[in-house]
Amino acid sequence: MVRQQGGGEVILGIRPEDTRVFSSRNSENSAECVVESVEQLGPNTVVSTNVEDATFKTIVPPEKVVRPGDRIWLEWDANRLHMFDGKTSSLMM
Q1: What is the rounded CA–CA span in Å between residue 80 and residue 13?
Q2: What is the DSSP string of the chain?
Q3: CA distances from 61 to 21, 28, 55, 66, 67 (A)
Q4: How far is Cα 56 from Cα 48, in angstroms, rounded to an integer?
Q5: For 16-76, CATH number?
C-alpha cells in the first residue's frame, strides 16, 4: 500500500502473468524477493514471494528452477499496474 498526495492510501496490484523473474536486478521496475513457495499447476509454475511483508505471485516457465528460500528479482511493466482505493478497494485506474 502507498500513500497518494492527498493522504489517502492506494493499493497497487499486478497480475502474476504480467511479471518476470530474473536472478539479478534488471530494471527500475523490480524488487528483490524471497521465494516462499513453488506450486506446479499444469504447464505453469506459480511462485509466491515475499517483499517487505507483501506477498506477490508470479508465473515462471517450467524450465526455470526456483526453490523456497531463493532470492530472485521480480520485474513488472508499470503500464500493467492496477490501482485500488485503500478504503473501498474500488479500482481507480
Answers
A1: 9
A2: -EE-TTS-EEEEE--GGGEEEESS--SSSEEEEEEEEEEEETTEEEEEEEETTEEEEEEE-TTS---TT-EEEEEE-GGG-EEEETTT--B--
A3: 10, 23, 20, 10, 13
A4: 6
A5: 2.40.50.140
| Confidence (pLDDT) at 4 | 54
pLDDT tens, the chain, 93 aa long: 455 556 678 888 889 889 888 888 988 888 899 999 999 888 889 999 988 888 889 999 888 899 999 999 999 888 998 888 888 888 986
**pTM, full prediction:** 0.75
Residue with cell 511483508: 53
